[in-house]
């Protein structure tokens, strides 16, 4: 059995039910249209705002001086301090090291060795 829309309409009239079109009433259609248009306008404004922010950031980046040079002449820095020795934690070391006997190494004795160009036996 096939679907007959004419029979369906007759049954509604018999039930005395009010007919509601598939698209809704005129007020509902206007409300859906308003919501859709408001959404489209909001998206256009949001994209425009994002474009303004990005263009301002690019302009600011182009104007700024990269790695600006210092405008004040550098002054000599003080000698580095040793906070541990200032606090008295590090043991006192002698100012000059004590001399040792091996300050100037002596050449090894060569009396027992044959000369380097001597033939091997």
TrEMBL record:
Q: Where is the composition biased (Low complexity)?
A: 66-80
User: Which parts of this chain are annotated as the region Disordered?
Assistant: 62-121
TM regions (residue ranges): 35-54
* Entry keywords, A to Z: Membrane, Transmembrane, Transmembrane helix
What name appears for this protein in its UniProt entry? Answer: Energy transducer TonB
Q: Which organism is it from?
A: Aurantiacibacter sediminis
Q: What is the lineage of its organism?
A: Bacteria, Pseudomonadati, Pseudomonadota, Alphaproteobacteria, Sphingomonadales
């Amino acid at each position: 059995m096939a679907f007959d829309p004419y029979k369906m309409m007759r049954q509604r009239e018999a039930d005395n039910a009010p007919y509601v079109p598939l698209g809704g009433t005129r007020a509902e259609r206007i409300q859906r249209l308003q919501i859709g248009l408001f959404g489209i306008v909001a998206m256009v404004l949001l994209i425009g705002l994002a474009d303004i922010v990005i263009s301002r950031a690019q302009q600011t980046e182009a104007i700024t001086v990269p790695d600006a040079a210092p405008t004040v002449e550098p002054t000599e820095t003080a000698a580095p301090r040793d906070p541990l020795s200032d606090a008295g934690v590090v043991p006192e070391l002698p100012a000059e090291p004590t001399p040792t006997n091996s300050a100037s190494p002596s050449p090894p004795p060569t009396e027992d060795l044959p000369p380097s160009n001597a033939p091997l036996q």
